[in-house]
Amino acid sequence: MGCEHNCSSCSSNCQTKDKNSFIVETNKRNSIKKIIAVHSGKGGVGKSFVTCMLANELAKKGYKVGILDADITGPSVPTAFGVTENLVGDGELMFPAITEKGIRIVSINLLIDDKSKPVAWRGPVLGGAIKQFYQDVLWEEIDFLLVDMPPGTGDVALSVFQMLPVDGVVIVSTPQDLVSMIVGKAVNLAKMMNINIVGLVENMAYMKCECCGNPLYPFGPSKLNDVANEFSIKPLASLPIDPTLNKQIDAGNIEKINYPYLDNVVNALENLGKKKLDKNLF
Amino acid sequence: MGCEHNCSSCSSNCQTKDKNSFIVETNKRNSIKKIIAVHSGKGGVGKSFVTCMLANELAKKGYKVGILDADITGPSVPTAFGVTENLVGDGELMFPAITEKGIRIVSINLLIDDKSKPVAWRGPVLGGAIKQFYQDVLWEEIDFLLVDMPPGTGDVALSVFQMLPVDGVVIVSTPQDLVSMIVGKAVNLAKMMNINIVGLVENMAYMKCECCGNPLYPFGPSKLNDVANEFSIKPLASLPIDPTLNKQIDAGNIEKINYPYLDNVVNALENLGKKKLDKNLF
């Protein structure tokens, strides 16, 4: 009988039954210290924004940082960093794009010529691309490899959590009730996969009124502490909407931005211990 | 040799080579006049919001409306309508939930008990669920079946466009540049699949300042006409951010909202002709 990938009900004693069997290894020329996934159960909450700003802040503190853009069906990381040239390789390994401040980036958008072309790939192909981004890229020495996850709990999210030895996941949310329900899905997926949850970042929490400077709440009042309590995770940061910031990001100038709002997240990542993971759950 | 699902390079003359071969038929007890997909290349732009408000406006005009919530990894339609009871069936067909105003809804969230449980299904299973939502649901007579698409151009989006005889797609965007690039992917996917694009709706375009009533642009100035021009599609509507609206939606009171902003979209859908589709592209 062929493998049905359901170890729990299978009596065979094959190799894939080994613990951590889905975890892949990166190539020997790399040394990656911590892998942090930035995730949410839903798109459009600013996961890529948080990934990029976090990469910036870590780089400013002297860490060697990489971004693996796993949001293959809607990648926005390269644009934010003003990186446009397609990736090249040496026949064996692919070289990441390197930003002005030295952040290394790999993204599907750096492999296709027409950036508005839909990447209409089926799940297994997407999973394969992510595996390649981890295994066949010359990341060299990296303190923090941030993985900008695809939204949702579908194929690609599953693949990343199964294949990469993720040390922690940062969950991103916005103040909308509906979105919190969906964040619950992301939290529960991480728990199912036995992955350490670093904490919760609330994005688009407020903006400053242009007339009086008072805070406005376009998506309702902050739910950071409520949602964090509900799922027993750490509330880490509440981020404002800032139209001037968006302009700089759209222009590819993200590395010129000073952004003190993520200090708590940076601390949490610095203090995050390595953890032996048991991924044999699916 | 087994089927590799690549008709263009295959010499076999099998049944699946027939035009429209992937299109499935709904059951004989249904009569569905028009199927409209609401799509975007990215999550969080308010696709579900537009789907629900559009359903409302069409229902108010006397049309029989159904919502097929295909956003299986992050479904928010039932919450907006305050529908919570799980779906039941008669052994043969499943019955949709029916809202106060008579809108029929089918969503994965109405099939699972713990709403915050992640639906961590692989692509083919997701595709199968959508097929079932179309085939095995007693929709009865429907003028407009709105399909709330999953974000992105991945598995589930592909499946919907391949399997359902979609008459038109409404593309949703926000004013951010990055998002427009990603909307391009959705537009191009629809073109690849030979599906009629009804036009573009820009969500979160502005909000009213609480002090002076002037418009504020949290995500930058409107890009509706620019993006519509760029991709040669019709600009249909520019929607405000309204925190009071969000509150009503979070409370499940979406049907109590008066929303004149979608009149153009409703007109476009009313005037949309049936079209013979050629889906034999994948």
Describe the protein in words.
2 copies of one chain form a homodimer. By secondary structure, chain A is of the alpha/beta class. The first copy, chain A, is 28% helix and 19% strand. The first copy, chain A, contains 8 helices and 9 strands. Chain A has helices at residues 47-60, 77-80, 123-135, 155-163, 177-192, 224-230, 243-250, 263-270, and strands spanning 31-39, 65-69, 97-98, 104-107, 141-148, 168-173, 197-208, 215-216, 235-240. In chain A, strands 1, 2, 3, 4, 5, 6, 7, 8 and 9 form a 9-stranded mixed beta sheet that branches. In chain A, strand 6 (168-173), helix 5 (177-192) and strand 7 form a beta-alpha-beta unit. In chain A, helix 3 (123-135) packs parallel to helix 4 (155-163). The longest helix of chain A is centred in the middle third of the chain and has 16 residues, at 177-192. Chain A is globular, with a radius of gyration of 19 Å. Chains A and B meet through helix 3, helix 4, helix 5 and helix 7 of A and helix 3, helix 4, helix 5 and helix 7 of B.
Topology at a glance:
The structure is a homodimer.
Chain A: E1 31-39, H1 47-60, E2 65-69, H2 77-80, E3 97-98, E4 104-107, H3 123-135, E5 141-148, H4 155-163, E6 168-173, H5 177-192, E7 197-208, E8 215-216, H6 224-230, E9 235-240, H7 243-250, H8 263-270
Helix pairs in contact in A: 3-4
